[in-house]
Amino acid sequence: MMRIIDSRPLLDAFLGALRPAAGRAAQATGAPPVLAIVRAAENAGSAAYAARIRATAAQAGITCHEVPLDTRMDGAALCAQVAAVSAMPGVNGMIVLLPLPTGTNVPQVMAQMDPDKDVDCQQPLNLGRVMAGTPLYLPCTATAAVMLAQGMLGDLAGVNCAVIGASASVGRPLALQLLDRGATVEIVHIRTRDIADHARRAQVIFAAAGHAGLVDAAWVSPGAVLVDIGINADPTGRPGVVGDIDVAAVAQQAAAITAVPDGVGPMTTGILLANTVHAASRQAGVDFTYPDLTTLPAYQALRL
Q1: Can you give the pLDDT at residue 199?
Q2: In angstroms, rounded to a whole number, what is the distance separating the alpha carbons of residues 207 and 192?
Q3: What pLDDT, on the 0 to 100 scale, is given for residue 70?
């Protein structure tokens, strides 16, 4: 029977371990760490993520401000607004949620952020640090996905992994993190020929294509572990979001699958908030260490 992985209990434990560090940063500066969320496009995935961040930040001792921008704003105006948010002295960390309005030069917009405040690792300098294996902050979604895979399987060394999706925000940093852990990684994407054949060879599939229900039983080998990173509007029109994997179709094949939106999503938020505390600590000259997940019973309970 396929196991559904919900990481909300792990997030609660992680935030409890993070809160003392937030308190130390607040004591040094006289105010809690502050995270600014910039959202400039209507999208089910980004709206769900923003709502989760707002709802969760207080548990970590973080103040969260959302900065909604006019979706009709042109590229120059959007760059100016992002730069203005980044320059606010009371903001310790910020995230610019994707997607941005159609036609926007995304790297140009991300370049407006101060790298020290870019807690989602999207500023070009921080992307380069991630690619070099020396990140200033942990890439949020990629780190969360790898953490859950490790929690389920333990050591990833030698494990065959397929990453579906090659975006700079998820697919590429995810592949690098897996390589750093000794996994064998194949990156495929929506234009890959015979993509299902590639996925079927993997023991772990990370689905991050942004395409609802893309992965079905034909893509999955018996006993595979599925990490669903997709957050999409339900194509049937029902409220809520769905992932990139057709859960009902793979139920007889897979050993486990992360829930959507409560699998990778909660821990993505947790890493974002930890990065925010890290940023506030760096700016205040206070030491910071990320909480050790492996010591948490909720993490140990993920093991298959």
Answers
A1: 97
A2: 14
A3: 80
